[in-house]
Design goal:
By secondary structure, this protein is of the alpha+beta class. It is 32% helix and 16% strand. Helix 2 packs across helix 5. It holds the Pfam family Nitroreductase.
């Protein structure tokens, strides 16, 4: 559509790769920058009702998360430099005297905004993000000892997309998925 203004390249070129460079490592400053972007996301009543379980490839938390992945995600996600699990608050914090008065209906929305901010920050750093739901939420919560007031919602794989010219040994089904063109519904279908 010629009357639609151009998107910012960080948004227009965003992708959710299933092929991450297995040699790339996320630096601590990059990780902190991503978490800082999420921290500054808007939230209902400035409650910031999200938390992240952070696993860097090779550490114990990453291994714990990988153990809970569904078969489809197990084929690609472990190669990401980091896997985060986004958690939303579903009950009062243990030390929040006003907690009983709060509503937790919006916390999934707020977590989504925080992850969106993290995703755009990742793009600004030359990183890619693939969000996913395919993991055993209950097993992860139990194994990671997630407090009762938090609920695992989404996985967030972060790393460097592995360019086709450099990659080798990728599962053919995943390779075929990578080759599919990016498509979106027409904008007219998004407005009621």
């Amino acid at each position: 559509m010629s009357d639609v203004p151009a998107l910012d390249p960080l948004l227009e070129q965003r992708r959710s790769p299933s092929v991450f460079d297995p040699e790339h490592s996320l630096t601590r400053p990059e990780l902190m920058s991503l978490l800082e972007a999420a921290r500054w996301s808007p939230s209902w009543g400035n409650t910031q009702p999200w938390r992240f379980l952070v696993g860097l490839r090779g550490d114990a938390t990453h291994a714990l998360i990988v153990e809970t992945l569904t078969r489809g995600n197990l084929a690609w996600a472990p190669a990401a430099s980091a896997i985060l699990i986004g958690l939303r608050q579903v009950a009062a914090l243990p030390d929040d005297p006003k907690g009983e008065l709060r509503t937790y209906d919006y916390t999934a929305y707020d977590l989504g905004q925080a992850v969106a901010h993290l995703t755009v920050q990742a793009a600004s750093l030359g990183l890619d993000v693939h969000q996913f739901a395919g993991f055993d939420h209950a097993a992860l919560a139990a194994t990671a000892r997630v407090p009762d007031h938090l609920q695992p919602v989404a996985g967030i794989a972060i790393g460097r997309w592995w360019p086709e010219t450099e990659r080798h040994g990728v599962d053919p089904a995943i390779e075929a998925k990578e080759q599919r063109p990016r498509q979106r519904r027409p904008a007219g279908e998004l407005v009621l």
